[in-house]
Amino acid sequence: MADTLSRFRPGTQQRGEDTRRRILDVALELFAADGFEGASTRALAERAGVNLPAIQYYFGSKEGLYRAVVAEIADHSVAHVAPLAARIAQELKDEPSRRRLVGLLCDMLDIVIQLMLDETVPNRDSRQKFFARMECEPNPATNVLQDSLIHHVFRPCTSIVARLVHRRPDDEQVLLKTMTLIGQAKIFCGWGPQRVLRWDAIGERRVRAVQALVREQVHAIFRVPRSR
Predict the structure, then answer these.
(1) Which residue of 49, 60, 88, 201 has the lowest C-beta tally within 10 Å?
(2) How far apart are CA 113 and CA 64, in angstroms?
């Protein structure tokens, strides 16, 4: 009875949440640095200050822990892009003007750029490394994140581009053009641009500058003059 009651004590529950959070933070750091195969459960447990059974207790296995890291990143991204994706789907039920279509496309790219450059996101460096590894070390677990981004970012953008160029959304030229447009934002996922630009810090001013430049290019590509 005493053991049962202790599970529901607020302090015990809070310690459990803190432990789970600590394991997740360490897992993101190690998976980003060493990859799924390179990060051992022993190293994960030691860095998080827990025993090995704790990983199994909270996540079932190393793969379960990896999936939890992926799910958390996916949830964070979806929380930012899903409302706009829903609005785009709603507006495309009608016949929005060409200017409005370009505006919606730019709104989505604004959010992607913000996600890539936001310095306030916890463990941002590890997230960037994790994204980079995800590109070159495919893992079935990362399909959740990739599918989520395809559904909430790529498909809405593809639907807009298809309207702008008067082709079907599954047309290869539409897919290629959409990938190129999103690539303008995705390039900021890594450290290369920051090294080239010699940015020690980014800040809101630089985020807005990148967004404004990408908007300018999108308007030029589709030959839609920007509003003053």
Answers:
(1) 201
(2) 30
Write out the two tokens for 209: 């500058």
> Mind listing the pLDDT tens digit for each residue in 14-49?
778 899 999 999 999 999 999 999 999 999 999 999
Give the DSSP per-residue string, 9-21.
-HHHHHHHHHHHH
Name the residue ranges covered by the structural domains of the chain. 6-221
Specify burial of residue 106 (Cβ count, 10 A radius: 0-12, 13-18, 19+).
buried
Is the distance from CB of 65 to CB of 59 less than 8 angstroms? yes
Contact 22, 49 (CB under 8 A): yes
Q: How far is CA 222 from CA 30, 158, 165, 170, in A?
A: 43, 14, 8, 19
Question: Is the torsion defined by CA of 202, 203, 208, 209 positive or negative?
Answer: negative
**Measured between alpha carbons, how far is 145 from 148 in angstroms, rounded to an integer?**
5
Letter string b/e over residues 165-203, b meaning 16 or more CB atoms within 10 A of that residue's CB: eeeeeeeeebbebbeebbebbbebbeeeebeeeeeeebe
Q: Are 52 and 42 in contact (CB under 8 A)?
A: yes
The pTM for the full model equals: 0.86
Helix count and strand count (H, E) for the chain: 12, 0
In contact, 109 and 7? CB cutoff 8 Å: no
CATH 1.10.357.10 fits 6-221, yes or no: yes
The tokens describing 154, both together, are 């790529």
